[in-house]
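Protocol step 4 of 6: structure prediction from sequence.
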Amino acid sequence: CIGEKTTREDHKSVSDQMYAAYAQGRELRGLVAIVGEDALNERDKQLLDFSGVFEDKFLRQTRDEDRSIDETLDLCWSLMASIDTKYLVRLDQKWIEKYGQ
């Protein structure tokens, strides 16, 4: 549940940014299959790399891994650190300054 007193203030923005970056990275996999990774620009390479790390570190959480919401959001910020902040367009600058790494 996202809302005041149930989560952290950056939750909605982080969630939106994470899934947008992941979706873009997944789309790029198809392009890479056709043109190769060398044809990608800096932004696209970052998003492609992010999509793999997102799957490995976030989506594949093990059954015995019990993260709190703060730990989960901190993990999200850690994963997004691989993307240049100029491409994190769904995040307010105030959240980047407060939680970014």
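Step 5 (inspection) to follow. Residues 11-35 form the longest helix (25 residues).
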